[in-house]
Design brief:
The protein starts with 13 loop residues before the first helix and ends with a helix. It is built from six helices and three strands; from the N terminus they run αβαααββαα. Strand 2 (95-102) and strand 3 form a beta hairpin. It is mainly α. Helix 1 (14-31) packs across helix 4 and helix 3 (60-70) packs across helix 4 (73-86). It has a three-stranded antiparallel beta sheet.
Length: 170
């Protein structure tokens, strides 16, 4: 009976499973997205999200804890330097699993697991925050943009006037 066994063993021993998840987590941090089976992607999400939460606070203790899981100093450096600042405002849900169909060889259910904040297709305005009621009000930055717009149009009109004068001279 499997009472109380809540995680997928992935058909491996404990040491093999921890090595697999550690290597996959390093690859995910390095490449920002990896292609794997759905079962491994779901196991990886449970493994890597607490590490991403720890990386939001850059302390020596958190670096050592994350290194104990990843065993790769380059992945730890990448996590704390580039990934952590991007996910600083997010309260969880750092990864996304997208099912991609079946593998031709053995018909295994495949998926793409990626870090949410690093996909430009799903969030093209990642740098711009969502407009809230307060931010929709007129701001000085918007007024400056409006003031600059006629200057650009005048230059275009002057260029058009120059080209029309050349045509009339010919």
């Amino acid at each position: 009976m499997r009472h109380g066994k809540k995680f997928n063993h992935l058909g491996r021993t404990a040491s093999h499973r921890s090595a697999l998840l550690s290597n996959m987590a390093c690859s995910l941090i390095e490449h920002k997205r990896i292609n794997t089976t759905v079962a491994k992607a779901k196991a990886l999400r449970v493994y890597v999200e607490p590490l991403l939460t720890k990386a939001k606070e850059d302390t020596t203790h958190n670096r050592r804890v994350v290194f104990s899981y990843l065993q790769n100093k380059f992945a730890v450096a990448e996590l704390f330097r580039t990934v952590a600042p991007k996910i600083a405002e997010r309260n969880g849900g750092y990864t996304r699993i997208i099912k991609t169909g079946f593998r031709p060889g053995d018909a295994a259910d495949m998926a793409l697991i990626e870090l949410v904040d690093f996909n430009e297709l799903y969030n093209p305005n990642a740098e711009e925050k969502k407009a809230t009621r307060r931010s929709r009000r007129s701001t000085p930055a918007k007024a400056a943009v409006v003031a600059d717009a006629p200057v650009v149009e005048e230059k275009v009109e002057e260029a058009k006037a120059d080209t029309t004068e050349e045509k009339t001279e010919e």
